[in-house]
Structure formats: structure tokens, C-alpha cells
Specification:
single chain; alpha/beta; 2 domains; six-stranded parallel beta sheet; 14% strand; disordered C terminus
Length: 483
């Protein structure tokens, strides 16, 4: 029996805004995890349409497709084509869980929620005969204990900048109103972890030194994270991950992460306005000192990728300039800006639908780059234009240079400058090595940029402190350095 796993390309990966490097970072670990349940006598294949062409000329026994909101229409087209050939098609993923009735029209079987328990159950039923297969498989047991090793042999490492991506937890302990993944874990544990030893064994199997933890909240379970970081000491790894504001401020967990090799972190600041944080249930950020978070990370030599959402109900047309100035003046290395997007299945979607503020159900536009609802304090055009301006302004050479000067050591300034400019200013370089299919050969460059900056070298002398204080006095007067 042959099973073909497909990740259709997202709509935004093929439009005028397309940045090839953005869609060539990480392999599809979710599909590689499901493939680990395929028995040795059966054949499995993974096709990621972002980095390779998808052939539809084959006839596998099962086609399994992962569906996100902005690849939904393409996923349905692929599914319909294979089904027209009499091939058994299964669909799963965030969008399927959010809109099962829509997805079921294009599949023989749909999966709701995570698949570590339901997918092997389906395979067992399928081998007994198609008549034994259920139409809908719902995750019953939420556990990562005993999950077999990911089928990394099916991942084409040369096509990705970060082939050593890894996930050691599932879900998130928080429940923000706009979070697309909340519905995915509904009906069971919404946050759970691997056994620490299993995580360390997976890390040990990966070549090279760089890792990228794709977990939504790597510090979400304090005991797990503490044991993980202690276990990673001495492994000589350099890694990146994501965490929340409160977890960075709470205790010394982030210090342990830095000792284990963390050099860059994704932080969901989302808004510099308390009203917005309260409205969207971002309670883990409320009444937290963002400046303290930033200083703590920078003192540890950890670069920051800050996430910000525009268009929330407390935002007016001034939010774009305020946010960009705040991010630059606080030395944020990279920023990810989003237009607030009401994903189906979220509380945000339900509220806007009730208020009759939704303007489209074209899922191709739900990519956080298009306006899909009526903002409260600005026009749709102001939201779209402000979002585009923010990205452009934050990544000008002037802004990159100014932001890098925030740091107290020359080494940290250089790291900041090259990491930020490399992410946004070298598209031609990335395109060439992507076309050569040698993207993973650039990984050592990433490792070098992420080299350690000690807290001792990162301390600012008194003269530098005075210069920095004067430089950013205006932003402090506007109370943009903390909320």
C-alpha cells in the first residue's frame, strides 16, 4: 500500500508579495509525524508544494492532505481530482477542524483535531477494508507518549533553510480570541508535551548544531521546559523558539534556555495598547512591562522576533507609526506584522459575524495581509495601507541600523544588523540558492549569525547608557516603551 502525503502551497506563496525564502524555511513536520505510523511494508511519500512540483499522474492507495485556510481551495481541487480517479482521499488540519462540513464534501474521510491517536486508528480500519472506515475521525486521546520518531527520511533536507525544525509540545495553555489553533484542540487537552527523554533523543538524532522549535509556546510547561533545557546543556546546540511575555518574566526559565543555546525568540506582543490585549483575551500580556521583557532577553543575548497585530478595535490610524517606532527604539531584531484576521472557529470570528462586520468569506484572503472585516476606528483602506507602510518602514536600511544600535556590544549590534537585513534585504540571494536546491547549505551562515553574545559583553557602559537614554527619550515620553 502507498500513502501520499501532500501539503498544498498557500495562496500567498504564489502572488506578487511572494518571498520564496519565507516558504522554504521548515519542512511539513505534521505530515512527517503521521507518516511515522505507516508500517514498514507500506510506502509513504511527502510532497510539499511550496518547494517542489506536485505530480498528479500517480495512483497511490491513499492521499492525505493537510489543509490550512489559505490553501483550502487548492487542497479541495487536488482532493477532487484524486477522488475522480477513484483514489481514497483524507483531509485534516486546522481548516478541516474549523469547517468540517465544508471539508467533508471533498474527502472520503476527515480528521478533527490532532492526529497522533486518530490517524493510526484510521490506518488500522482501512486495512480491514474500506467498509470499516469511519467518515470522521476525532482525536480521543491527547498524548505524545509513545509517538514513534518522525519520518525525517521522507524530508528533502536540501530544500529547506531550517531542516532541523522540531516540535516537542502540542497546543498552547492560553486562549486568545483570535487564535486559529484554539478550535483545533477543542474537546480535549489543549496543551501537552512529549516525554523529555524522547525530545532529547530526537534532538540528538539531528545533524549539525542549529534547531528551530516550532512549538507555539516552548516555555508553556515550566517543569518540562526546565528539564529540557537542562538536558540540552552540553549538546552544543543553537536554537530558536517562541514564548509568551509572562513566561519570560516568570522566574529563570529563559535564563536556562539561554544557557542551553537559545539565541532568538518569537514573542507575541500583538499590541502596545492594553485595551486591545484585554478585548482579545491576551491576558498573559496584560499589565506586563514589555521593556523588562526586552531588556531581559537582550541581556541574555537573545534576539527578538516581535509579532504585532493591526486592526483590533482599539487601533486608530496612529497605531502603525507608534508600533514601528516602539519596535525600532527597543531594538526588536525582526518584526512580523499582521492584519487582524477573524479565522472561522475563533471567538473573534463569532463576534465580528454577530456584529455584521465581516466583508468576505473568500478564504484565500484570510492570510493576515488582506482586510476581511470592517475596522472600528479606521477605514479598510487605512488598515491595509498602514500595514504595508509598517513593514516597509521597519525594514528600511535606516531603521535596521538605528535599531541595531540599541544593543550595548558591537557584536550584538552586528548580529542584529545581519539577521534583520538578511531576512528582508537579500531576496535575490535567497532566490538563487533556492533555485539551485542548495538552501540547506546556507544554514551554517544562520548558525554563525546566531553565535553567542554573553551578558557580560552585552552590558552597556555609562556613556553608552546616556547616549541611548537621550536617543529614545521621546519614545519614553510617549509611554511606548511599556504598557
Amino acid at each position: 500500500m502507498k500513502i501520499k502525503f501532500i501539503l498544498p502551497s498557500l495562496t500567498e506563496a504564489e502572488d506578487s508579495f511572494w518571498r520564496p525564502i519565507k516558504y522554504s524555511l521548515f519542512p511539513p513536520l505534521g505530515l512527517a509525524t503521521l507518516a511515522s505510523y505507516v508500517s514498514d511494508e507500506d510506502e509513504a511519500e511527502i510532497v510539499d508544494q511550496h518547494v517542489e512540483k506536485l505530480s498528479l499522474d500517480d495512483e497511490p492507495d491513499i492521499v492525505s492532505i493537510q489543509v490550512y485556510i489559505t490553501n483550502a481551495y487548492r487542497a479541495y481541487q487536488i482532493a477532487d481530482y484524486y477522488r475522480s480517479k477513484g483514489i481514497f482521499v483524507v483531509l485534516g488540519g486546522l481548516h478541516v477542524t474549523s469547517l468540517p462540513e465544508e471539508a467533508s464534501q471533498h474527502a472520503d474521510v476527515i480528521f478533527l483535531g490532532p492526529g497522533e491517536e486518530s490517524f493510526p486508528r484510521f490506518l488500522k480500519d482501512f486495512k480491514k477494508g474500506k467498509s470499516n472506515v469511519e467518515k470522521v475521525y476525532i482525536s480521543k486521546i491527547r498524548s505524545l507518549l509513545g509517538v514513534p520518531p518522525i519520518r525525517r527520511d521522507l524530508i528533502k533536507r536540501n530544500l529547506y533553510l531550517v531542516p532541523n525544525s522540531i516540535v516537542v509540545t502540542r497546543g498552547c495553555p492560553h486562549h486568545c480570541d483570535f487564535c486559529y489553533k484554539d478550535a483545533f484542540f477543542e474537546g480535549g487537552n489543549s496543551f501537552y508535551t512529549q516525554a523529555v527523554d524522547d525530545s532529547l533523543e530526537e534532538i540528538d538524532r539531528l545533524p549539525g548544531s542549529h534547531l528551530y522549535f516550532l512549538d507555539d509556546h516552548l516555555l508553556g510547561n515550566r517543569k518540562f521546559a526546565k528539564d529540557l533545557f537542562n538536558g540540552m546543556k552540553g549538546m552544543k546546540r543553537v536554537f530558536q523558539g517562541a514564548a509568551t511575555v509572562d513566561s519570560i518574566l516568570n522566574g529563570n526559565l529563559i535564563d536556562l534556555a539561554a544557557e542551553a543555546g537559545m539565541r532568538s525568540i518569537f514573542v507575541g506582543f500583538e499590541s502596545i495598547t492594553e485595551e486591545n490585549l484585554s478585548r482579545c483575551n491576551k491576558l498573559q500580556n496584560l499589565n506586563k512591562d514589555y521593556t523588562e521583557v526586552i531588556n531581559k532577553l537582550h541581556d541574555l543575548g537573545i534576539m527578538i522576533n516581535g509579532s504585532f497585530v493591526f486592526g483590533l478595535d482599539g487601533d486608530d490610524p496612529n497605531v502603525f507609526k507608534k508600533t514601528v517606532e516602539w519596535a525600532i527604539s527597543n531594538g526588536i531584531t525582526t518584526s512580523t506584522f499582521h492584519i487582524a484576521t477573524p479565522y472561522p472557529g475563533t471567538e473573534f470570528y463569532k463576534r465580528l459575524k454577530k456584529e455584521e462586520r465581516l466583508i468576505t468569506n473568500n478564504w484565500d484572503l484570510y492570510d493576515t495581509r488582506h482586510v476581511t472585516f470592517k475596522p472600528r476606528l479606521m477605514t479598510e483602506g487605512e488598515l491595509k495601507n498602514g500595514y504595508q507602510w509598517a513593514y516597509k518602514e521597519f525594514y528600511t536600511w535606516k531603521s535596521i541600523a538605528k535599531s541595531s544600535l540599541f544593543h550595548g556590544s558591537v557584536k550584538h549590534q552586528i548580529k542584529h544588523f545581519f539577521y534583520s537585513s538578511g531576512w528582508k534585504k537579500f531576496e535575490a540571494f535567497w532566490k538563487i540558492i533556492i533555485e539551485m536546491k542548495k538552501l540547506n547549505q546556507a544554514t551554517p551562515i544562520l548558525e554563525a549569525v546566531l553565535s553567542k553574545v554573553s551578558s557580560r559583553n552585552n552590558k552597556v557602559n555609562k556613556r553608552e547608557q546616556r547616549v541611548i537614554k537621550k536617543r529614545f527619550a521621546q519614545s519614553k515620553k510617549k509611554k511606548l516603551t511599556s504598557i
